Each structure stands twice: as C-alpha cells, then as structure tokens.
Amino acid sequence: MTVMLAPPHTQPAVHNGTLPSGVLPRIRAVGTAVPPESYTQQDILDIFGVTDERIRSVFLNSAINTRHLTLPPPGPNRERRVETQGELLRKHVNTGIDMGSRALETCVKEAGAGLSDIRYLCCVTSTGFLTPGFSALLIRELGLRVDCSRLDVVGMGCNAGLNALTAVAGWAAAHPGQRAAMVCVESCSSAYVFDGTMRTSVVNSLFGDGAAAILVEAGDAPGQDTSGPALAGFSSRIIPEAADAMRYDWDDDEGKFSFFLDRDVPYVVGAHAEEAVDALLAGAGLRRTDVDHWVVHSGGKKVIDSVRVNLGLTKHDVRHTTGVLRDYGNLSSGSFLFSYERLVAEGTVARGDLGVLMTMGPGSTIETALARW
C-alpha cells in the first residue's frame, strides 16, 4: 500500500524535481538517547565467559564495535546473574522511561519548543509488554498535557518506527500548526536469553539499547523554520511467506520470551527492497536516481549489504546506517532516526533534496517514506 500525503484537491506530482508543499507534515527535530554503559563485543564475550568459537565469531565479525546495554550488575564473584522474565520487564519499563524522556526532551529543545506544545504522542516498543504503555508513563513522567492524544505501537519490531510515523504524520496533517511526537523506546537487553545456543547468540550479538524521538508539524507559518523535510508519502510492503522469519517465541525451559532471526532474513529483505522502494517513488513520479539521501534501518551487516546491492546504492549512500550499526548495534524501531540525526548533523542536505527512509522487520515487512527538504 502506498499513501501520498497532500492537501485536498492536489496531487503529489513532481514539478521541476520537487513536490508541492501545501500542508504536508514536516520533521521539525529529532533527539536520541542511550544508556550510559557502553560495551565492546569483546567486553560482552568476556563478561559472560563465552568460549565457543562459533559464537565468538558471530560477535567479532558483526561490523559492530560498541553497544549501549543495561546488563545485570556483577555478583560477589563478578559473574552476571541471569535475570528472570519479571526482572527483564521491569528493566524494560525503567530504562525505557529514562531513555524515552531524555530523547523527547532533547528533541523538543532542538525544535525550540516546550513539552507542553506536544498535542499527540505516539510511543513505539517491541522489547517488552506493558499496560499502560509508554505514552501514559511519559506523560506522567514529563508532565505533558493531560489532554494530549496518544497511541502505543507494541510488538511490530524494527520496521515499527515508520509504521508509527505514518500515523503521526496523518494526525499532524489533520491538525495544522499542532505538534505531534513519536518516541521509539527499545531496551533490547530486556529481551536477551543467555542459553548458549547459536539462535540466541545471534540476537545477543546484534541488538543495543536506545531511544529516538521525532517532532512533526504540518503547515508553515510566516517566518517559521522550514529546514526540516516534509514527509511526502509512505509505502508498505509485507512478505507473507516470510511471516515466521523474525518472531518472538516463549521458551518454556528459560521461562522467558526469546527472539528468533532466520538466517535468510538478509536475502529475503534484499530481494524485495526494489519493489518496496520503487512503489514509493512511483507514487510521486520519481526514480531511484532522483533520490539524494538514503536513511536505512541498521538491521545488521548482511541486511545492509543485501539492501545496498539490490538497490544499486554505494557504501557512501548508507554511511550513516553502517555508522550507527558500528557504534550502537541494531536499535530496532529507532535505528533509522539515529541515522537521520547523523545525516542532519553532517550538514550536506540542500533545499530541494529528496530522501528515502526505509525500515525492515517482522512480517516480514519493508516500510518506506519519502522526505523532501
């Protein structure tokens, strides 16, 4: 499904390489946060005493240097205690509130706004189940308006940031001049299982903790900063035959949830990347060669390489994606916003540039969005 956002009675057609502005939702600011503790892959192998050479190879050949994690404190003999499912869920809530609060405060400050300006809050997570969700908890924690509309997106996985951004952009387009926020909160260390198997080791070698927030607003008032890109369209593509390729299972032996990644995930995602992106661009009369910037989810080295090859991208095109993977690992739903933050900080974006945002995850699903500066 492809959705193009445009004002009533207009079509999102291309005019001299740009899209009509109208009352399109625009990204005003982004903010990120991670736990204070950072670990190298070798650190983690040492902490948990991993000696299996196959598992060590997975960690050390992951293209990841460091990750921010919230690990259990060392015991009397410096060993790390295995956490129960209840303890993992409590960690998910506590670290999630901390990271989500800091990411949202940074985002709002970057936009020159206040927390009281947020009229719609959407929170995304896949690393723990809780009721009430992070939207209610962050409203209480930060003192947001009690009449703030809210939405919680739970369990959709790494693609969920763009799924949720579709809803946020739609709300903003329907309420010009009012600010909507999305916060992706992923405490991936709250979803770890340490059982020594290759299945769990692949997951444990890849994911890191982090939160990312984005502020969206439609309508450009006179004198208002318009440096952020307009969100001109969204497109979704699900691969039903790969529904079981990424999933949570309940592990009876360990008494907790265990995430599973099929070894063929990179190739499945890469094989469908072209049709997903081309569907997005076709809705705006564009081709891949018209795209100036690519913001792709840091799903893992093989995933990034597969997407890059199938879309005909260069290593330079995905430099922010690989940089985020190197420094943070896979941050699940918020990864693409860490990459977007790096793109903006780089200062290479020019007015009129076009960008594609792309996330991939369980379903199996590829989500895309078109951004115009």
Spatial separation of the terminal alpha carbons: 24 Å
In what range is the share of β-strand residues? Answer: 15-25%
Sheet with most strands: 5 strands, mixed
Query: Mean of residue pLDDT?
Result: 90
Strand order of the largest sheet: 1-9-14-13-12
How much is the radius of gyration in Å?
20 Å
Global morphology: globular
Key terms for this structure?
373 residues; alpha+beta; five-stranded mixed sheet; 33% helix; 24% strand
How would you explain this protein's 3D organization?
This protein is of the alpha+beta class. It is built from ten helices and 14 strands. Strands 1-9-14-13-12 form a five-stranded mixed sheet, with helices on both faces. Strands 2-8-7-5-6 form a five-stranded mixed sheet, with helices on both faces. Strands 3-4 form a two-stranded antiparallel ribbon. Strand 5, helix 4 (134-142) and strand 6 (149-154) form a beta-alpha-beta unit. Helix 3 (85-110) packs across helix 4, helix 7 (265-282) packs across helix 8 and helix 9 (319-328) crosses helix 10. The protein is globular, with a radius of gyration of 20 Å. It starts with a strand and ends with a strand. Residues 6-21 have low confidence and may be disordered.
